[in-house]
């Protein structure tokens, strides 16, 4: 499935341990087509440096950053009304992208959607935002990735979003004695069969490398 890709128009709920290097998957997903990259935790210039360090991403000109981080943390007060305003701003930004790119395929990456899940807003606003992204990606035929940190959020709203999502992609670290293995699983794919096992990977000079070795019982 990693080579064939996800079905066009899929909303991917991408949940990962924060120490699993999962963001490298997101960097590679920018290489398939024009990508609107919503960054909530760092300035775009730092993300650009990290993405450019992955050899498989050749054209950073096709990655358009939407800087939620600076707008919220550097230009706003945070909390209260500012939480409502950042939701309104990102909805307006997505609607503009929808109009400007009508008829074109593109990806949306939200790094991280955990930021939105922790805002002091009604859960209805979060589900409304998810549904907006869902509708946009269905219309354009691209992919949308909601990057969420594992074991962080209220399970009820996570379950609602996972029910909406077309794909559930999980990345974690397996600890075996003194060894640690990075691995991923894809437990839900609408329109395709999910992968019925964990797949180990490592991060190399060209990005994600699937570990084809087998554990000996």
Polypeptide structure, described:
The mean pLDDT is 90. A nine-stranded mixed sheet has the order 3-2-4-5-1-6-7-8-9, with helices on both faces. Helix 4 (81-100) packs parallel to helix 6. It is globular, with a radius of gyration of 17 Å. With 217 residues, it is an alpha/beta fold. It is 35% helix and 28% strand. Strand 2, helix 2 (44-52) and strand 3 form a beta-alpha-beta unit. It has one domain (10-210): P-loop containing nucleotide triphosphate hydrolases (Rossmann fold, 3-Layer(aba) Sandwich), CATH 3.40.50. The protein has helices spanning 23-29, 44-52, 68-74, 81-100, 114-117, 123-140, 155-164; strands at residues 10-16, 35-39, 63-67, 107-111, 143-149, 167-176, 179-189, 199-204, 207-210. The protein contains seven helices and nine strands. This is Recombinase RecA. InterPro entries: DUF7125, P-loop_NTPase. Keywords: ATP-binding, Nucleotide-binding.
Secondary-structure map with pairings?
Blueprint: E1 10-16, H1 23-29, E2 35-39, H2 44-52, E3 63-67, H3 68-74, H4 81-100, E4 107-111, H5 114-117, H6 123-140, E5 143-149, H7 155-164, E6 167-176, E7 179-189, E8 199-204, E9 207-210
Parallel strand pairs: 1-5, 1-6, 2-3, 2-4, 4-5
Antiparallel strand pairs: 6-7, 7-8, 8-9
Helix pairs in contact: 4-6, 6-7
